[in-house]
Structures are given as structure tokens and as C-alpha cells.
């Protein structure tokens, strides 16, 4: 397999994994494909690298000595941050959903074959490139609808009464897509794609959990049903949307 120059040019991957043998194997394989690879065995070391170097993708183990990977995931989960691929020996659905809720872009269970790791890193890089340097078009940072204001950069939803509602990365991605397609049906498959990308089928009912939590946050602050379900089809954001 030859390196894909269109994907790997200037791309840097940070591997955060305490298993030295596994980490070095992953680093060697990605390096052979043309990626610049940096390595850390703990969260503290990863933070030092992130402060000193630009990183495009973080492959982050959940179970690390000392501070766990989930706390670093939470810190990095912002629109202009690196793409995050969570890596864990845990395979329960609740663990996958927790990782996604905290802002991971993808989640895989160890052991992962090197070629699958490469494919997932490439997929994250393609989505990063397609989304642009800020993860979204920077001219479309504020959405106003039904008295609410969504600030994409701050990942904050302001209610009509002024209360700030913090959104997870998944909630932000779903709400943004619904707002971009206001008063049109958005399929579950499209919503799954924005929270997981090309491996959307592995999420299961994750999108329904995001929708349920998003609804609770919104409907607690207004007296109308803004996110409507079209059974067997998808969801609709029923409001006029102004992009500031």
C-alpha cells in the first residue's frame, strides 16, 4: 500500500497509548504511509506535545495511567481542535456513546488491524479537509431561531431568556445540520454521518440519544416543539433560521 499524498501531506497524528509495543507498531505503520507521527504514553506527555506542535488527528486510548483519555478528549473537543479517534479495549455500547458524547469523532475497540487504523485516520483527515480550517465555514458561526442563538465557535446555545445551554460535540453537529436544513427532513443516516463520519452504521441508536437530550435542553426553555420526528424518515427543525 503506497502513501496517499493528498491525505498525508503535512498531516500529523498523535498516538496516546500506554502500551509501548502497540504504540510503536501503530507509529511505524502510519509513518510508512507518509504521516508525521508523535507519541505519548500518558495524558501529561500528550498535552506537552499538543502545546508545542500542531496535530491533525489524536488517536487516544481511554485507559491510561493517571489521568484517563476521556478527560483529554473533553478538553480537545472544540470546532477548531484536532480530530479524535478513541481507542479502547472496552466494547460496551455505553462506553462508545460516552466517548462520542465527550467529543470523539470516531471510536474503535482494540485490537485494531493497522489497515483499519489507517482507513479511519484517512477518513478523519478527509472530513477535516472538506470542513475547512475551522471545522465549518467561519462565516456561518451564529444561527438565530425561535428566540435561540447558536454560537458554533463557543459551542453554546443561548435560550430566549438568556440562559446558556452547553452542547456536546454530537449535539452541536446534529443541531447544526438540522439548522442548515430547517423545515426539511434530515434522515437518521445523515445525522449519524455527522457524528461518526463514514463508519456511521456502528453507532446504533446513538443519534436518538443525542436528539432526545437536545430536545430536553431546548424544550425546557420554550413552549413549542422545535425538533419533530417523522417516523421512518428522520427529523425536522421547525423554525425560521437566520444566519448571522
UniProtKB/TrEMBL annotation:
DNA-binding feature ranges: 140-239
4-aspartylphosphate modifications at: 61
Domain Response regulatory: 12-125
Origin: domain of life: Bacteria
Any GO CC annotation of this UniProt entry: cytosol
InterPro entries named among the record's database cross-references: CheY-like_superfamily, OmpR/PhoB-type_DNA-bd, Sig_transdc_resp-reg_C-effctor, Sig_transdc_resp-reg_receiver, WalR-like, WH-like_DNA-bd_sf
Positions of transmembrane segments: none
Boundaries of every OmpR/PhoB-type domain copy: 140-239
Keyword terms, alphabetized: DNA-binding, Phosphoprotein, Transcription, Transcription regulation, Two-component regulatory system
The keyword Transcription regulation belongs to this UniProt entry's keyword annotation: yes
Biological process (GO), any one: regulation of DNA-templated transcription
Keyword hit for Chaperone: no
Gene Ontology molecular function terms on file: phosphorelay response regulator activity; transcription cis-regulatory region binding
PANTHER family noted in UniProt: DNA-BINDING DUAL TRANSCRIPTIONAL REGULATOR OMPR (PTHR48111:SF4), REGULATOR OF RPOS (PTHR48111)
Name under which the protein is recorded: DNA-binding response regulator
Amino acid at each position: 500500500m503506497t502513501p496517499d499524498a493528498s491525505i498525508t501531506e503535512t498531516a500529523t497524528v498523535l498516538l496516546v497509548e500506554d502500551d509501548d509495543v502497540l504504540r510503536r507498531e501503530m507509529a511505524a505503520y502510519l509513518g510508512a504511509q507518509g504521516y508525521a507521527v508523535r507519541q505519548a504514553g500518558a495524558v501529561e506527555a500528550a498535552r506537552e506535545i499538543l502545546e508545542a506542535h500542531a496535530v491533525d488527528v489524536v488517536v487516544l486510548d481511554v485507559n491510561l495511567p493517571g489521568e484517563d483519555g476521556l478527560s483529554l478528549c473533553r478538553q480537545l473537543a472544540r470546532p477548531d481542535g484536532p480530530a479524535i479517534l478513541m481507542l479502547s479495549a472496552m466494547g460496551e455500547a455505553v462506553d462508545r456513546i460516552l466517548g462520542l458524547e465527550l467529543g470523539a469523532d470516531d471510536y474503535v475497540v482494540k485490537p485494531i488491524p493497522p489497515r483499519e487504523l489507517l482507513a479511519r485516520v484517512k477518513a478523519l483527515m478527509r472530513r477535516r479537509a472538506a470542513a475547512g480550517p475551522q471545522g465549518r465555514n467561519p462565516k456561518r458561526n451564529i444561527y438565530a431561531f425561535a428566540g435561540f442563538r447558536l454560537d458554533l465557535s463557543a459551542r453554546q446555545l443561548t435560550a430566549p431568556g438568556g440562559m446558556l445551554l452547553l452542547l456536546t460535540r454530537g449535539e452541536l453537529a446534529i443541531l447544526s445540520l438540522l439548522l442548515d436544513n430547517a423545515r426539511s427532513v434530515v434522515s437518521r443516516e445523515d445525522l449519524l454521518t455527522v457524528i461518526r463520519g463514514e463508519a456511521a452504521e456502528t453507532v446504533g441508536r446513538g443519534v436518538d440519544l443525542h436528539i432526545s437530550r437536545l430536545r430536553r435542553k431546548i424544550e425546557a426553555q420554550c413552549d413549542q416543539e422545535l425538533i419533530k420526528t417523522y417516523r421512518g424518515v428522520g427529523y425536522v427543525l421547525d423554525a425560521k433560521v437566520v444566519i448571522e
